[in-house]
Amino acid sequence: MNPSIWELDTFYRKRDAIIIGSGFCGLWSAISIKEKFPEKSVLVIEKEPIPTGASTRNAGFSCFGSLAEILADAEKMGWEKTLDLVKLRFDGLQKIRTYFDPKEIDYEEVGGFEILNNEVALQKIDEVNSKLKSITNLEKTYTVQNQKIAEFGLGNAKILIENPLEGSLHSGKLLVALLKKAQNLGIEFLFGTEILEISETENEVVIKTKNAEITTEKLIYATNAFTKKFFPNIDLVPARGQVLVTEPIENLKLKGTFHYDEGFYYFRNVGNRVLLGGARNKAFHEEETSDFSTTEFLQNELEDFLKNVILPNQNFKISHRWSGIMAMGTEKSPIVEKVTERQILAVRLSGMGVALAPKIGELVPNLLEVRSLKSSNFVLLSSFLLNLPQSQFFTSCQFFSFFENCYIFHIGRKCIYFCVTIFNQIFIKKSTVF
Ligand SMILES: Cc1cc2nc3c(=O)[nH]c(=O)nc-3n(C[C@H](O)[C@H](O)[C@H](O)COP(=O)(O)OP(=O)(O)OC[C@H]3O[C@@H](n4cnc5c(N)ncnc54)[C@H](O)[C@@H]3O)c2cc1C
User: Fold this and answer.
1) For ligand 1, atom 51, which residue shows the shortest CA distance?
2) Are residues 228 and 242 in the same domain?
3) Binding site membership of 226 for ligand 1 (Cβ less than 6 Å)
């Protein structure tokens, strides 16, 4: 089907920025771009009728890491990266609360809990609390609350750790709120539009869809688990997460969000129902898929966990089962980087995109700016040189051959300072607009 001239002038016209994917990452990125560059046109293209990956199909934990999870991360990637990730998530949760009324998205700071069945992580609780203090502003982010094991009716649990800053939200309502916010900012959408092929010319990126080609100045991939279609060699694997929800349970004791087994099992109450997900570590290989089905094996694992740990000696019925697809990699950190001067990746949000996406969204507009390496080197080097004493200044200038062809070298330092300032004002300012 050929597009009409009306369609080409409107829906399929060239945009300043196009984002592929309308999950949390795509929407927060679109909002941040539009906030930073209100005059730029921004379009989000989504292959499904609604966002369909992980964002609408997750567990709705607003969390930044349990004790055992943080220790496991630190062991794999070191404390610096682990704390960076905790900070991104912590700040991300604050951002959600400044953008939306908690009631609009059912945001509840009900507390996050972790069940531990040995003391290994417990021995490091003080160390982790002191490392997290500068992020959470709490003396003790994690405390032992074993008395709550009985209060919540949990079975097979030896130690319960509480983090008062975590909670839950309604992922569907958060996405709807983000869509509304995006539309109010003038961001446009094409749903049900799968991108088939992408190519880049000197002047633009060309996006081929079933019905038309659309061009853009900049393209952002917020395709998370589905990114391999465009970048087959990227360090990313799809990871299916299976979930079940019970029917309402009378006098349900459970309240809050819960982690178990370094976060491989997660459960919470949704009103008086229990939502439970995970157990991916019981079938790692089988769950490395982007197929949205559920499997008997994993659903049975989840039901066993429900019987033994969450609802021991209680009758329950399962009302819903579903799965969503995450993106994992050899590293837990997300990939937020330029592929070319015009194409940017914002993917691999692992099992923590609710909290991460608001801050990843903020990084994307910075990557759209063109700040040539040469120009920033110029500024750095010139500031360095201008701070040197007179004699060293001239020797260094000769050494770097920095101003060798520049006549102002002979006029003096003040002139150079003036030129650098003008250069900054004109060249850098111009070059930071995309
Ligand atoms: C079962 C489960 C439970 C989870 N629980 C939590 C939790 O409690 N807390 C938490 O913080 N995180 C949780 N996560 C992780 C979190 O949901 C993800 O990290 C986050 O949603 C990722 O957002 P995203 O926008 O990057 O990806 P997605 O939400 O997957 O969005 C990617 C979008 O790109 C679209 N797309 C892909 N390819 C194309 C194409 N070719 N053309 C057009 N569109 C395309 C897809 O259709 C999709 O809508 C969970 C995930 C799962 C699966």
Assistant:
1) 58
2) no
3) yes
The SS3 assignment for 170 reads: coil
**Candidates 354, 356, 359, 363: which one to mutate for ligand 1, based on the most atoms within 8 Å of Cβ?**
354
Q: Report the relative pairing of strands 257-260 and 112-116 from DSSP bridges.
A: parallel
Ligand 1 center–CA 23 separation, angstroms = 6
328 CA → ligand 1 middle, Å: 11
Evaluate whether residue 85 is within a structural domain. Answer: no
Q: Mark whether 13 and 41 lie in a shared domain.
A: yes
Q: Which residues lie closer than 8 Å to 35 by C-beta, 6 or more apart?
A: 185, 365
Q: Which residues contact 86 (CB under 8 A, 6 or more apart)?
A: 64, 65, 70, 132, 135
Task: State whether the beta carbon of 194 lies less than 6 angstroms from ligand 1.
Answer: yes
**Residue for token digits 């991916």?**
280
Is there a domain that residue 393 lies in?
yes
Asked if the structure places residue 247 within a domain, the reply is yes
Using the mean position of ligand 1's atoms as its centre, give its distance from the Cα of residue 224 in Å.
Answer: 6
CATH number of domain containing 344: 3.50.50.60
Count of C-beta atoms within a 10 Å radius of residue 67:
26
DSSP 99-126: HS-GGGGT-B---EEEEESSSTTGGGHH
Which residues, at least 6 apart from 78, have a Cβ–Cβ distance to it below 8 Å?
Answer: none
Q: pTM of the entire structure?
A: 0.89
Which residue among 368, 393, 423 closes a domain? Answer: 368
Report CA(423)–ligand 1 centroid distance (Å). 43
The tens digit of pLDDT for each residue in 109-139 reads 999 999 999 999 999 999 999 999 999 999 9
Which atom of ligand 1 is closest in space to residue 194's alpha carbon?
Answer: 42
Domain span at residue 315 reads 109-167+236-328
Radius of gyration of the chain, Cα coordinates, nearest whole angstrom: 26
Q: Tens of pLDDT along 285-333? A: 999 999 999 999 999 999 999 999 999 989 999 999 999 999 999 989 9
pLDDT of residue 401: 45
Has residue 103 been placed in a domain?
Answer: no
Going from the Cα of 379 to the center of ligand 1, the distance in angstroms, rounded, reads 40
